Amino acid sequence: MWTKTRITQLLGIDRPILLAPLGGGPSTPALVAAVSEAGGIGTLAGGYLTPEKLRDDIAAVRAMTERPFIVNLFALQTPPMPPREVLERANRALDRYRDELGIAHAPLPERFEEDFAKQVEVVIEAKPAAFSFTFGIPRAEVLDACRRAGIPTIGTATHLDEGKALQDAGVDAVTAQGVEAGGHRGTFLGAPERGHVGTLGLVTQLVNTLTIPVIAAGGIMNGRGIAAVLALGADAAALGTAFMLAPEAGTSAPYRQALKSGGRHITALTTAFSGKEARGIVNRFLAENAGREMPAYPYQNALTRDIRAAAAKAGRAEFLSLWAGQAAALAEELPARELVARFVRETEEAVQRLSP
Ligand SMILES: Cc1cc2nc3c(=O)[nH]c(=O)nc-3n(C[C@H](O)[C@H](O)[C@H](O)COP(=O)(O)O)c2cc1C
């Protein structure tokens, strides 16, 4: 039975279908709860949230469902802050976009990222069905604290060595994030190019090498994709872009328009918005800044924040980070519950077709 896997057992869910974490707005408590209610499992993306907002969002999910859900954070080994003049130069290079949007030339931000240790405290206190993370491996104390609290941990790997490092660190499962995936690459070992492995190649290697369960992510948009990764040996599929047009998603209006536009299947990896490689629909900001040197994540991310916020408000998709996977053209505007029901039906059909 495709519906019973090590992941459905670990998380206490009916179907091995995950709403992938969608930080920066799309994964609202309502979307997370709807996917969990439908028999899959939602992931609350907490990486960009203050500890207080994270606590509130977890409470909001709990008010909507008693079903299990996952909380996701960024386990980033923060690189040293670049010299002030480098940040100033990078910030001034963005002023032409601020001028077009009619907003002030922002000074350097005071803070560049959220306090991971405080976010983790909130997660441990809340005891979600699992704690998932990307961009690295949390310190052993954090993983130990999760183990003591009975919270399974799920890391993100973009190549084989990252999968091995995560398993060696004692995590309970690994998300295999193929290069097709929308949003930031989780890559944390070696050059970014090492993580440019397709979902098919990555899942197969991780399943063959690791003993812990593998969750496949990247380019999965329907039940045929779910059946495909289960056939590769994955214990679950995580879908991100497929949920971004659901009415429950917090995807902004111009972002939704871009996801419905004729150019939505033209995506590229870029460091322009955040300093860390991420896949998004190609737009003017991405094209104009291709190949340019910029401060690493989280510094560039903090510098562009006011531009992205103003662009969302003004309906200017050309300045937004339009994170989306390579199969974005297949995203459908349906309530999350209907999407999950459809994915279950399609997976069933695909499995039947292959083994009549
Ligand atoms: C808008 C957006 C935001 C994302 N935010 C996060 C995040 O906060 N944490 C994370 O681990 N992955 C994040 N990702 C990556 C997804 O969890 C997942 O790997 C990806 O969506 C899978 O590929 P797909 O979009 O083709 O389904 C994000 C992806 C998108 C599209």
Indicate the percent of residues in helices.
40-55%
Radius of gyration: 19 Å
Query: Biggest sheet, in brief?
Result: 8 strands, parallel
Taking pLDDT < 50 over at least 5 consecutive residues as the criterion, the unreliable ranges are: none
Number of helical segments with 4 or more residues:
14
Beta-strand level of the residues, as a percent range? 5-15%
Order of helices and strands: HEHEHEHHHEHEHEEHEHEHEEHHH
Q: Determine the N-to-C terminus distance.
A: 14 Å
Using the alpha-carbon principal axes, give the shape. Answer: globular
Structural class: alpha/beta
Question: How many beta-strand elements?
Answer: 11
Q: Biggest sheet, strands in spatial order?
A: 1-9-8-6-5-4-3-2
Average pLDDT rating: 97
Bound molecules: flavin mononucleotide
Summed up:
With 356 residues, the protein is of the alpha/beta class. Helix content is 40%, strand content 13%.
Itemize the secondary structure elements and their pairings:
Elements: H1 6-11, E1 17-19, H2 29-37, E2 42-45, H3 51-64, E3 69-74, H4 84-92, H5 95-101, H6 116-126, E4 130-134, H7 140-149, E5 153-157, H8 160-169, E6 173-177, E7 183-184, H9 199-209, E8 214-217, H10 223-231, E9 236-239, H11 253-260, E10 267-270, E11 278-281, H12 284-288, H13 299-314, H14 336-354
Helix pairs in contact: 2-3, 3-6, 10-14
